[in-house]
Protein 1
Amino acid sequence: MNPHTDLYCKVFVGRTTETDARTLLSALLGVGFSRGTARLGDLFVDVRRNKEHVAGETDFLFWPVVVELDSEERSAGERLVETTAAVLRALWNAGCPAVAACDFEDVLPWSGGIGSPVMPPEDA
């Protein structure tokens, strides 16, 4: 990973609620959420309502839920990429459209989702 890459990723998620997304990701990650945040060592995963959500809007920037993944530890870069990829796949496999916005989209499956011809990708 490029040492100048920002260790942060925002995943926009459609067709789900904060509660359902937390339940899904809690099972995936093996940790619980407290006040919307789960901690995995030096990684943080937040699941929140998208303040920019617009009902019926098809642009992913306005989907109802955002999942934010970040770390302050430079050494966590590869784990952040792996965790983000796992989160995307879990959301897609649950039938939720999800698109990642981050500096490392190009190494994520389907370029973070934006590269998929259908959403969610059929071969997640």
Protein 2
Amino acid sequence: MDERPIYALRARGFNPNEKFFESFDELVSTYAAAIKQYQPHGPYYIAGYSYGGPVSLPVAQTLEAMGEKVHVLVIDAPPVIEHPRGKVDRVESALMLSFFLGFIDKSQLDTLGNYLRESEDINPVDYLFSLAPTSRIRELGQDLTTFKHWNDLAYGLSQIGGSYKPKGSVNDITVFYAQPIWGSKADYFETMLKKWDKYSRSPVWYIEVPGEHHTILNPEFVDKFQEIFRSELSKMVSKQGAEK
């Protein structure tokens, strides 16, 4: 497993002069084409975290349609792109990005929404950036301009994702899940994560990992997560070799 190349996919729009994706279909086709460009043939092991979880399904389906062998690994996400608190407006998008970046805490995430929507003289992005710890801003190499751009990108992704309705299936899916931001883990598992069963031709493997949705890859949990992830990936690779 260690000698296999690893590639990361990042939403278009971070680099200068890059256009944001205009549709979910464009995102999927671009990702699939990029994967084929760097590795022309499978087997592919495609992992998607959060928003990338539901993205991994149509990307894998696109590659399977080309005759490739694909394994899907989902990191704490259901197959649908639905926000737990409902419709995502500019304020909600900015709040979620700020929370994931460590600019605000859970209490602020839960309480600032109405305040920002009702305060017409306050720019939500400016305000949230003003709350961010200086050390965290420096650590991420952010300033107000780049943070505003990131907000625009994140909001755009939420809007095109809302049109996506999963369908079809892939050969196999493994789901890693943690404590959700809101609600109980048991409810999250039964009402949201189990929806993956519909989209896999093999029984879905569900694997619990430590941490919360937004902290799985934080320093206090990432070592254990990568240990679990690598173990499952090794099993897949070994099984793939045995089936040849």
Protein 3
Amino acid sequence: MTSVSPPERATTTIRRVRPTDGPALSAIYAPFVTDSAISFEYEAPDGDTMAQRALVIDATHAWLVAECNGQCLGYAYAGEFRSREAYRGTVEVSVYLHQAARGRSLGARLYHALFAILADQGRRMAIAVVTVPNPVSVRFHEQLGFRRIGVIEAAGYKFGRAHDVAYYQREIGQDGRDCS
């Protein structure tokens, strides 16, 4: 993975994903796949695959990138929670940051920007799925107003053992519009 060390005074911008972001997205995501059970994927997707995923999701929901001096520091996205029509107002959200970009409130900035877009789309509820135990992610989501609503025990199997996932929920809009 490339080194990321933005100057302290450099401006970080949050923008929609672009087709050329694939390699950077892949570089950020790969350690979550290969070195942890945070992601339940077994093989890290390449840049082309990540770009395709991002563009498909961004076309219907939102995928945001945090960038500083041309370097991608992290991303957040919201996608379909369930496929049936009545779930359209509920989305599943995720945020991933480059290791060097953590601890700078960038994840919160990405989520807040994402929630604003989702509210404009008429989305009402965000669901975050967190592999547990993961105290850093749990604290992060709770500080942003998510509340734990349940746990699925042994939901995934990776690295020779079963892992639980906790579901966290946060309201993002209240207008009741149809999101079709």
